[in-house]
Amino acid sequence: MLNVKDISIQYGKNPKPTVEHFSLELNEGEICSIVGESGSGKTTVIRAILGLLPGGGKVSQGDILFNDKSLLKYSREDWRKLRGTDISMIFQDSGAMINPTRKIGGQFVEYIRTHENISKKDAWDKGVMMLERMRLPSGDNIMNSYPFQLSGGMRQRVGIAMAMTFEPKLLLADEPTSALDVTTQAQIIRQMMELRDQYNTSIIIVTHNLGVAMYMSDKIVVMKHGAVVDAGTREDILHHAKSDYTRNLLTCVPTLEGERYV
Ligand SMILES: Nc1ncnc2c1ncn2[C@@H]1O[C@H](COP(=O)(O)OP(=O)(O)O)[C@@H](O)[C@H]1O
Ligand SMILES: [Mg+2]
Protein backbone atom coordinates (compact mmCIF):
# COMPACT_ATOMS: atom_id res chain seq x y z
CA MET A 1 0.00 0.00 0.00
CA LEU A 2 2.67 2.49 1.09
CA ASN A 3 6.29 1.89 0.23
CA VAL A 4 8.82 4.50 1.28
CA LYS A 5 12.02 3.49 -0.46
CA ASP A 6 15.28 4.71 0.96
CA ILE A 7 14.46 8.41 0.94
CA SER A 8 16.67 11.29 1.97
CA ILE A 9 15.20 14.70 2.69
CA GLN A 10 17.02 18.01 2.44
CA TYR A 11 16.11 21.51 3.52
CA GLY A 12 17.34 24.49 1.53
CA LYS A 13 20.94 24.52 0.46
CA ASN A 14 22.15 22.49 3.42
CA PRO A 15 24.22 19.78 1.70
CA LYS A 16 23.69 17.33 4.54
CA PRO A 17 20.25 15.73 4.33
CA THR A 18 18.09 16.19 7.44
CA VAL A 19 16.81 12.63 7.02
CA GLU A 20 18.87 9.89 5.37
CA HIS A 21 17.98 6.41 4.14
CA PHE A 22 14.47 6.20 5.56
CA SER A 23 12.46 3.18 4.41
CA LEU A 24 9.07 1.86 5.43
CA GLU A 25 6.65 -0.66 3.97
CA LEU A 26 3.11 -0.52 5.26
CA ASN A 27 0.31 -2.91 4.35
CA GLU A 28 -3.42 -2.31 4.56
CA GLY A 29 -4.65 -2.05 8.13
CA GLU A 30 -1.20 -1.91 9.68
CA ILE A 31 -0.17 0.56 12.33
CA CYS A 32 3.40 1.85 12.34
CA SER A 33 4.91 4.15 14.94
CA ILE A 34 7.84 6.45 14.33
CA VAL A 35 9.63 7.05 17.61
CA GLY A 36 12.55 9.31 18.41
CA GLU A 37 13.71 12.32 20.33
CA SER A 38 12.80 15.86 19.37
CA GLY A 39 14.60 16.98 16.21
CA SER A 40 15.24 13.44 14.94
CA GLY A 41 13.25 14.07 11.74
CA LYS A 42 9.89 12.45 12.46
CA THR A 43 7.75 15.35 11.32
CA THR A 44 9.98 15.80 8.28
CA VAL A 45 9.25 12.20 7.21
CA ILE A 46 5.48 12.59 7.75
CA ARG A 47 5.43 15.82 5.74
CA ALA A 48 7.41 14.23 2.93
CA ILE A 49 4.88 11.39 2.67
CA LEU A 50 2.03 13.92 2.61
CA GLY A 51 3.76 16.05 -0.02
CA LEU A 52 3.75 18.94 2.45
CA LEU A 53 7.41 19.73 3.02
CA PRO A 54 7.77 23.46 3.66
CA GLY A 55 9.37 25.62 0.95
CA GLY A 56 12.97 24.58 0.38
CA GLY A 57 12.38 21.04 1.64
CA LYS A 58 12.63 18.23 -0.86
CA VAL A 59 13.05 14.49 -1.16
CA SER A 60 16.51 14.34 -2.71
CA GLN A 61 16.79 10.60 -3.06
CA GLY A 62 14.58 7.52 -3.12
CA ASP A 63 10.87 7.22 -3.84
CA ILE A 64 7.51 7.10 -2.07
CA LEU A 65 4.99 4.74 -3.63
CA PHE A 66 1.30 4.76 -2.71
CA ASN A 67 -0.55 1.87 -4.36
CA ASP A 68 2.44 1.50 -6.69
CA LYS A 69 2.33 5.12 -7.88
CA SER A 70 5.07 7.59 -7.01
CA LEU A 71 3.74 10.35 -4.78
CA LEU A 72 6.79 12.39 -5.74
CA LYS A 73 5.31 12.78 -9.23
CA TYR A 74 1.92 13.98 -8.02
CA SER A 75 0.81 17.39 -9.27
CA ARG A 76 -0.88 19.96 -7.07
CA GLU A 77 -4.20 18.86 -8.54
CA ASP A 78 -3.47 15.14 -7.87
CA TRP A 79 -2.69 16.04 -4.25
CA ARG A 80 -5.82 18.13 -3.88
CA LYS A 81 -7.87 15.04 -4.73
CA LEU A 82 -5.85 12.64 -2.60
CA ARG A 83 -5.22 14.64 0.56
CA GLY A 84 -8.18 14.54 2.92
CA THR A 85 -9.70 11.56 1.13
CA ASP A 86 -7.37 8.59 0.53
CA ILE A 87 -4.61 10.03 2.70
CA SER A 88 -5.42 12.24 5.65
CA MET A 89 -3.72 13.66 8.64
CA ILE A 90 -4.23 14.65 12.25
CA PHE A 91 -1.99 17.04 14.11
CA GLN A 92 -0.65 17.36 17.61
CA ASP A 93 -3.37 19.79 18.53
CA SER A 94 -6.24 19.76 16.07
CA GLY A 95 -7.11 23.10 17.60
CA ALA A 96 -4.25 24.47 15.54
CA MET A 97 -5.80 23.20 12.32
CA ILE A 98 -9.28 24.42 13.16
CA ASN A 99 -9.93 28.14 12.81
CA PRO A 100 -10.53 29.42 16.36
CA THR A 101 -12.92 32.16 15.30
CA ARG A 102 -15.42 29.94 13.51
CA LYS A 103 -17.81 27.32 14.82
CA ILE A 104 -16.90 23.67 14.17
CA GLY A 105 -20.00 23.05 12.04
CA GLY A 106 -19.24 25.64 9.36
CA GLN A 107 -15.68 24.37 9.03
CA PHE A 108 -16.66 20.72 8.94
CA VAL A 109 -19.35 21.35 6.31
CA GLU A 110 -16.89 23.33 4.18
CA TYR A 111 -14.28 20.58 4.49
CA ILE A 112 -16.74 17.89 3.40
CA ARG A 113 -17.99 19.99 0.49
CA THR A 114 -14.51 20.58 -0.91
CA HIS A 115 -14.27 16.80 -1.43
CA GLU A 116 -17.85 15.79 -2.08
CA ASN A 117 -20.61 17.41 -4.05
CA ILE A 118 -23.44 17.32 -1.50
CA SER A 119 -25.84 19.85 0.05
CA LYS A 120 -24.96 21.78 3.17
CA LYS A 121 -27.67 19.91 5.05
CA ASP A 122 -26.29 16.50 4.03
CA ALA A 123 -22.75 17.60 4.85
CA TRP A 124 -23.92 18.76 8.28
CA ASP A 125 -25.59 15.39 8.94
CA LYS A 126 -22.48 13.57 7.80
CA GLY A 127 -20.37 15.70 10.14
CA VAL A 128 -22.70 14.95 13.06
CA MET A 129 -22.51 11.22 12.27
CA MET A 130 -18.70 11.29 12.20
CA LEU A 131 -18.54 13.17 15.51
CA GLU A 132 -20.87 10.71 17.17
CA ARG A 133 -18.79 7.83 15.86
CA MET A 134 -15.87 9.38 17.72
CA ARG A 135 -18.12 9.19 20.80
CA LEU A 136 -18.59 12.91 21.11
CA PRO A 137 -21.84 13.13 23.07
CA SER A 138 -24.07 15.40 20.99
CA GLY A 139 -22.80 15.93 17.47
CA ASP A 140 -25.18 18.86 16.90
CA ASN A 141 -23.92 20.64 20.01
CA ILE A 142 -20.32 20.18 18.93
CA MET A 143 -21.11 21.50 15.45
CA ASN A 144 -22.59 24.61 17.08
CA SER A 145 -19.55 25.17 19.31
CA TYR A 146 -16.47 27.32 18.90
CA PRO A 147 -13.20 25.37 19.23
CA PHE A 148 -12.33 27.15 22.49
CA GLN A 149 -15.52 25.84 24.08
CA LEU A 150 -14.20 22.27 23.75
CA SER A 151 -11.54 20.52 25.80
CA GLY A 152 -8.26 19.51 24.14
CA GLY A 153 -9.43 15.89 23.99
CA MET A 154 -12.72 16.87 22.35
CA ARG A 155 -10.93 19.06 19.80
CA GLN A 156 -8.64 16.17 19.00
CA ARG A 157 -11.66 13.89 18.48
CA VAL A 158 -13.11 16.51 16.13
CA GLY A 159 -9.82 16.47 14.20
CA ILE A 160 -9.89 12.69 13.96
CA ALA A 161 -13.58 12.69 12.96
CA MET A 162 -12.76 15.10 10.11
CA ALA A 163 -9.75 13.07 9.05
CA MET A 164 -11.82 9.88 8.94
CA THR A 165 -14.77 11.34 6.99
CA PHE A 166 -13.73 9.83 3.68
CA GLU A 167 -12.46 6.57 5.16
CA PRO A 168 -8.84 7.18 4.24
CA LYS A 169 -6.58 4.29 3.31
CA LEU A 170 -3.76 5.98 5.15
CA LEU A 171 -3.92 8.19 8.24
CA LEU A 172 -0.86 10.13 9.35
CA ALA A 173 -0.82 11.35 12.93
CA ASP A 174 1.94 13.59 14.23
CA GLU A 175 2.05 13.34 18.03
CA PRO A 176 -1.75 13.30 18.21
CA THR A 177 -1.90 12.80 21.96
CA SER A 178 1.13 14.53 23.40
CA ALA A 179 -0.85 17.64 24.37
CA LEU A 180 -3.40 15.56 26.29
CA ASP A 181 -3.58 14.18 29.83
CA VAL A 182 -2.79 10.46 30.16
CA THR A 183 -6.38 9.25 30.49
CA THR A 184 -7.53 11.11 27.39
CA GLN A 185 -4.36 9.98 25.61
CA ALA A 186 -5.20 6.34 26.30
CA GLN A 187 -8.80 6.80 25.11
CA ILE A 188 -7.72 8.43 21.86
CA ILE A 189 -5.12 5.74 21.20
CA ARG A 190 -7.76 3.03 21.68
CA GLN A 191 -10.16 4.87 19.39
CA MET A 192 -7.53 5.06 16.68
CA MET A 193 -7.03 1.31 16.99
CA GLU A 194 -10.79 0.78 16.67
CA LEU A 195 -10.82 2.94 13.54
CA ARG A 196 -8.14 0.72 12.06
CA ASP A 197 -10.31 -2.32 12.83
CA GLN A 198 -13.47 -0.72 11.42
CA TYR A 199 -12.08 0.81 8.24
CA ASN A 200 -8.88 -1.18 7.73
CA THR A 201 -7.09 2.16 7.57
CA SER A 202 -3.29 2.02 7.79
CA ILE A 203 -1.90 4.42 10.35
CA ILE A 204 1.48 6.04 10.81
CA ILE A 205 1.73 7.66 14.20
CA VAL A 206 4.60 9.81 15.41
CA THR A 207 5.14 9.60 19.14
CA HIS A 208 7.97 10.06 21.54
CA ASN A 209 6.31 7.60 23.89
CA LEU A 210 7.66 4.10 23.18
CA GLY A 211 4.96 2.73 25.51
CA VAL A 212 2.27 4.03 23.15
CA ALA A 213 4.20 2.64 20.18
CA MET A 214 4.51 -0.78 21.79
CA TYR A 215 0.86 -0.82 22.74
CA MET A 216 -0.65 0.00 19.37
CA SER A 217 1.80 -0.79 16.59
CA ASP A 218 2.49 -3.66 14.26
CA LYS A 219 5.70 -2.00 13.16
CA ILE A 220 8.05 0.49 14.77
CA VAL A 221 10.77 2.74 13.35
CA VAL A 222 13.19 4.35 15.79
CA MET A 223 14.95 7.50 14.58
CA LYS A 224 17.88 9.46 15.90
CA HIS A 225 19.54 12.49 14.28
CA GLY A 226 17.75 11.88 10.98
CA ALA A 227 18.73 8.23 10.69
CA VAL A 228 16.81 5.03 11.30
CA VAL A 229 18.54 3.22 14.17
CA ASP A 230 16.01 0.39 14.47
CA ALA A 231 13.06 -0.81 12.44
CA GLY A 232 10.92 -3.90 12.50
CA THR A 233 7.87 -5.52 13.98
CA ARG A 234 6.88 -4.77 17.53
CA GLU A 235 8.46 -8.08 18.60
CA ASP A 236 11.68 -7.36 16.67
CA ILE A 237 12.07 -4.08 18.52
CA LEU A 238 11.14 -5.56 21.86
CA HIS A 239 13.43 -8.59 21.69
CA HIS A 240 16.02 -7.90 19.02
CA ALA A 241 16.71 -4.16 19.05
CA LYS A 242 20.02 -3.47 17.29
CA SER A 243 20.92 -0.11 18.75
CA ASP A 244 21.84 0.84 22.29
CA TYR A 245 19.60 3.85 21.83
CA THR A 246 16.50 1.67 21.42
CA ARG A 247 17.53 -0.66 24.21
CA ASN A 248 17.89 2.34 26.49
CA LEU A 249 14.46 3.62 25.52
CA LEU A 250 13.04 0.19 26.31
CA THR A 251 14.36 0.21 29.84
CA CYS A 252 12.48 3.38 30.65
CA VAL A 253 9.25 2.96 28.73
CA PRO A 254 6.50 5.15 30.12
CA THR A 255 3.22 3.47 30.97
CA LEU A 256 -0.10 3.99 29.28
CA GLU A 257 -2.63 4.73 32.04
CA GLY A 258 -0.66 2.94 34.68
CA GLU A 259 -0.27 -0.29 32.71
CA ARG A 260 3.03 -1.35 31.25
CA TYR A 261 2.97 -2.88 27.81
CA VAL A 262 6.50 -4.20 27.59
N1 LIG B 1 11.42 24.16 7.38
C1 LIG B 1 12.63 23.76 7.81
N2 LIG B 1 13.76 24.30 7.30
C2 LIG B 1 14.98 23.89 7.72
N3 LIG B 1 15.17 22.95 8.66
C3 LIG B 1 14.09 22.37 9.20
C4 LIG B 1 12.76 22.74 8.81
N4 LIG B 1 11.89 22.00 9.53
C5 LIG B 1 12.63 21.20 10.33
N5 LIG B 1 13.95 21.41 10.13
C6 LIG B 1 15.06 20.72 10.82
O1 LIG B 1 14.94 19.33 10.60
C7 LIG B 1 15.32 18.62 11.76
C8 LIG B 1 14.24 17.61 12.11
O2 LIG B 1 13.08 18.30 12.50
P1 LIG B 1 11.68 17.56 12.68
O3 LIG B 1 11.39 16.73 11.49
O4 LIG B 1 10.68 18.59 13.05
O5 LIG B 1 11.98 16.61 13.93
P2 LIG B 1 10.97 15.92 14.96
O6 LIG B 1 9.59 15.95 14.38
O7 LIG B 1 11.52 14.53 15.13
O8 LIG B 1 11.08 16.71 16.23
C9 LIG B 1 15.56 19.64 12.85
O9 LIG B 1 16.94 19.80 13.00
C10 LIG B 1 14.94 20.90 12.32
O10 LIG B 1 15.64 22.03 12.75
MG1 LIG C 1 7.85 16.71 15.18
Major sheet summary line: 6 strands, mixed
Strand order of the largest sheet: 6-7-8-3-9-10
First and last CA, distance: 29 Å
Question: Can you list the ligands bound to this structure?
Answer: adenosine-5'-diphosphate, magnesium ion
Shape category = globular
Task: Using the coordinates shown, work out and report the CATH topology.
Answer: Rossmann fold
CATH class wording: Alpha Beta
Radius of gyration: 18 Å
Question: What oligomeric arrangement do these chains adopt?
Answer: single chain
- Residues in β-strands, percent: 15-25%
What is the mean predicted local confidence, pLDDT?
A: 92
Structural class, from helix and strand content? alpha/beta
Order of helices and strands: EEEHEEHEHHHHHEHEHEEHH
- Counting structural domains, the number is 1
The CATH homologous superfamily name equals P-loop containing nucleotide triphosphate hydrolases
Give the low-confidence spans. Answer: none
The percent of residues in helical segments reads 25-40%
The helix count comes to: 11
